Amino acid sequence: MRYLVTGAAGFIGFHVSQKLLDRGDEVVGLDVVNDYYRVQLKEDRLKQLANRPGFSFHKVNLADREAMDRVFKTGGFEIVIHLAAQAGVRYSLTNPHAYIDSNIVGFTNILEGCRHHGIRHLAYASSSSVYGANTTMPFSIHHNVDHPMSLYAATKKANELMAHCYSQLYKLPTTGLRFFTVYGPWGRPDMAMWLFAEAILAGKPIDVFNEGKMRRDFTFVDDIVEGVIRVADNTAAPNPSWTGAHPDPATSFAPYRVYNIGNNQPVELMYMISVLEECLGRKAEKRMLPMQAGDVPATFADVDDLIRDVGFKPATTIEEGISRFVKWYRDYHKV
Question: Which among 36, 91, 124, 152 is annotated as catalytic?
């Protein structure tokens, strides 16, 4: 198979590309390689991919309509795994236009490319952030998600709505994937696991929000990747029992699906920190702070539909996952 993987220089896109290449598929990677976080890390990921048979790369901005059209015209791919986006809840509070350009305009260009070039299936990254003010746990794809807490979350919900339009109007099969707090080797420097490890090793305090009263469904990147690829290879189909009288948000009369990919085992933030301290062999100095704007106190993924439809449930424990992250972090930084 030949896949387009957007965000190939990013955390999840890099790992998805590696996994596809490992099994003998061809990957056309796409990324703008912007400076949202350190560019060197993105370039180091790309170096891992560059010399692998079956991999080619385009440095393109998703919002550049003409450039994206050229990628689709010349790509020859059958399945699109769209992972590129402007990420981060906190960054969206001060840089809203970056989210509109990448997550709305860019996603429109992806949808148009898929529509006009016979793409068999579009699987794209959504986010657990779409659950916003919802408090019923675990978060279910069958719940309405109409109260986002950040512009980032709103753009991800908008992506799901836009995808449904294209699934309905043009019979384009689309599947949205709501990721829950992904961590692991080659992770993002703006996320808690990296920020905490960096600060602890430097002897600096870590910022612990909401006085530590947070729970997250931390999900190891290998589990995310396995879920992404299984879903991408399982083309979305209409739900024959869907009815407008009782509309199910996760399915449709169109070839449209949404899934959670999470560990299904929320972890207290303070416990995560204690495991990280043990793996690093150092204690953290903790600076307890109030809840940040746009954040939520807890996440918890219901993955029953993922298990039923593609036969997969994330299972990497927080202890194993953090141990593997710390080993990579030490190797990468030579500390």
Answer: 152
Note whether 153 and 130 are within 8 A (CB): yes
pTM: 0.96
User: Do the Cβ atoms of 59 and 32 come closer than 8 Å?
Assistant: yes
Helix 39-50 with 11-22: angle, nearest 10 deg: 10
Task: List the beta bridge partners of residue 179.
Answer: 127, 261
Largest CA distance in the chain: 59
Report the interhelical angle of 11-22 vs 221-232 (nearest 10°): 60
Other Cβ atoms less than 10 A from the Cβ of 275: the count is 19
CA atoms of 94 and 102, how far apart (whole Å):
15
Number of H helices, E strands in the chain: 11, 13
Mean pLDDT, each 10-residue run in order, the chain (335 residues): 97 98 98 93 97 96 97 96 90 90 97 97 97 95 95 96 98 98 96 95 94 94 98 98 97 98 95 97 94 86 97 96 98 95
CB-CB neighbours of 321 under 10 Å: 24
Distance of CA 88 to CAs 202, 234, 282, 325, Å? Answer: 24, 28, 28, 20
- Rounded to whole angstroms, the Cα distance separating 20 from 54 reads 10
3 in catalytic set:
no
Under a CB-based contact definition with an 8 Å cutoff, are residues 311 and 224 in contact?
A: no
> Peptide bond preceding 138: is omega within 30 degrees of 0, i.e. cis?
yes
Distance CA 146, CA 46 (A): 37
**Torsion, Cα of 69, 71, 73, 74 (10° steps):** 160
3-state secondary structure of 226: helix
